[in-house]
Amino acid sequence: MRRRKITVEELLSQYERGERNFSGVDLNHGNLFEAQLKGVNLNGSFLHHANLAYANLEGANLDQAHFLGANLSRVMLEKAHLRQAQLQNAKLIGAILRDCQLSDANLMGANLHVSVLERADLSRADLRGATLTSAVMTDAQLNGTLLSRCNLLHTQGVNLRGAIYDLNTTFPDGFSRPE
Length: 179
Hints:
Elements: E1 4-5, H1 8-16, E2 25-26
Parallel strand pairs: 1-2
């Protein structure tokens, strides 16, 4: 996919006029703080170190998008598609990821403290070294999810059946690791 450089102002203006397809755009270091982009298509786009804190991306297509080191704190991503997305070292503190598709996503080192991941599909996602402290993960799918060095302390509703973890994983309260 070819990258197309676009400014935040251009994206917001075109979105306001009804355009939704921005696949493959380059918004690295862009400031989309509190942006209202429900249903936007940013498939395969580049948002490295972008600020999307408090943005509304509900129902967005973010498959294969690149968010390395991005700030997505308190972002609304309910029912969004982030399959194969690159979210290494992204800040997702307090993010709403309810019913989100995150299969095969790379979240190594991401901070998801107090995030809501109810019914999220994290199948085969890479969460090695991620922080999920006090996250809500009721009915989240973790089949084949990598959890080495992941911090799950005080995580609520998590079912680790099918997940891949090791001795470096910090488990949620009351979890009994199989011997």
